[in-house]
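Continuing the batch. This is chain 6 of the set; chains 1 through 5 are on the previous pages. Same settings as before, nothing changed between runs. Recording input and output for traceability.
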Amino acid sequence: MIITPSKISIVFYTTPHSKRARLVQMCQFNEIYHCGIFIEQGDSAFILAADKTHRAKFVPEELYHQKMYNDPDKVIVLGESDINLKHTCDFVATNYRGDTLSMAFWFFIGRYLFKSYVPKSCSILSCQLARICGFKIDDYVLPKDLYKHLLTKKYTKEYSWEEYKENSDANDFNSRTGGCR
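Output for chain 6:
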C-alpha cells in the first residue's frame, strides 16, 4: 500500500467556455457551472476529469486548463491528506461518465419527483473522492450547492485562482488550520 501526502482542494469554474456551460449557469441562476477535485503532491498537480466521452482520470492541472480554455475562478482548500493511491486509482478506474440528458432530467424533474435518483455530475465525483481522501462531505449534485456547503465549513478558506497560485498563505493553509476534517 502506497500512502502519499497530498494537498486537497476543490476548484470552481465561473467563466463559461461552451454553450452547455452558459446553459448550466442560466438554469441554476448561478455563475458556478463546474467543479473538480485538485490534488497537489510535491511539485505535481492533478485534476480529476470526467466527461461523457471518457472515464474519470487524473489529468495534469496545466493540461486540463489548456483544454478547458480557462483557469478556475475559485479554490477552496480542504486540507492535507495521506492518500492511499490504490484506493484512489480503484475509484478512478470505475466507469464514471456523466451526461447532459441525465443532469437535465434531474434538474427539471428528478429532484422533485424521484428524490433517490442522483445523476453523475462533477460535484458528486468531487464529493466522493474527497471522502475517499478522508474529508467529511455530503453528496451535492450541483457545483453551486457544494460551493455553498464548503464555505460554511469552519476550516475552509476560499481563494481566487490568482491568489492561490501567488499567495504563500494559501500554500501554507494546512499548517495553520489542520484542514477540513
